[in-house]
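Input structure tokens:
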């Protein structure tokens, strides 16, 4: 029995009964117990079948009622959560939320995060422009402005991010200009900082630091082109020159939340 979906109690029952290899057990899950009337009905059936009841009820009043009613009917019961809750309360003086289904709420958050990470990988570096319309945030900028690390960081905050590199010789995808400006973030960087980052990158790859990739003339050309695109898009611009990934991500999250509040206020 459970005031949520009952998976925890069922798992405990199955783990226990698996120790009795020569005996078969019938296990019935009764989820979403919310009232004393439901408790009465299930315990009456258990008494008639001489069954035992394993339960995860978080509401103290309902949990106590079930224990008392089971004693009256001589039904053997096992309280899965109660003892753990009491030990934690007594040991650290903490109070539980007494809210059913929190484990599954956490599971839901986990799967949302996994989905966002998979999205970031799929739509990284402009691989598939079709993802731009589905993204919560689209990051744009020249190479080495932390688009991919930011996408992954935000994905772990359950934000679906696509990113598009801006290169003078390649027109941005047409889909980018269909994305609402408030969902686009332009990333800019100081040209000397970018030169340092790119030079270090070339060095780790065993290439000459004098390659066009790190040339100051080329870098300035790329940044001017990127700024022109950002102006066309009327998007938010963040300078990432001296910011850690976490700091830039924080600015993006604040911007997203600000837009959400604005939308809610106008409804």
């Amino acid at each position: 029995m459970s005031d949520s979906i009952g998976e925890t109690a069922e798992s405990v029952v199955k783990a226990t009964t698996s120790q009795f290899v020569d005996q078969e057990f019938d296990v019935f899950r009764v989820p979403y117990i919310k009232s004393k009337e439901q408790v009465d009905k299930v315990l009456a059936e258990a008494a008639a079948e001489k069954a035992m009841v394993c339960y995860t009820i978080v509401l103290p009043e309902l949990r106590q009622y079930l224990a008392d009613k089971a004693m009256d009917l001589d039904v053997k019961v096992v309280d899965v959560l109660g003892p753990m809750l009491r030990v934690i309360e007594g040991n650290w003086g903490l109070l539980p939320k007494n809210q059913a289904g929190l484990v599954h709420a956490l599971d839901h958050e986990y799967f949302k995060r996994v989905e966002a990470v998979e999205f970031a990988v799929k739509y990284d570096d402009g691989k598939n422009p079709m993802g731009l319309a589905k993204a919560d945030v689209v990051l744009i900028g020249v190479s080495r402005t932390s688009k991919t690390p930011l996408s992954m960081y935000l994905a772990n905050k359950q934000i679906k991010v696509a990113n598009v590199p801006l290169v003078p010789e390649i027109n941005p995808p047409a889909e980018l200009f269909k994305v609402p400006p408030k969902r686009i973030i332009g990333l800019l960087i100081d040209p000397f900082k970018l030169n340092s980052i790119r030079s270090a990158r070339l060095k780790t790859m065993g290439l000459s630091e004098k390659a066009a990739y790190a040339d100051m003339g080329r870098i300035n050309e790329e940044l001017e082109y990127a700024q022109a695109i950002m102006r066309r898009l009327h998007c938010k611009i963040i300078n990432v020159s001296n910011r850690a990934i976490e700091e830039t991500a924080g600015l993006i999250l604040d911007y997203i939340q600000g837009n959400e509040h604005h939308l809610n206020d106008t409804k």
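The beta strands are 53-55, 77-79, 137-141, 161-165, 184-188, 236-239. The longest strand covers residues 137-141.
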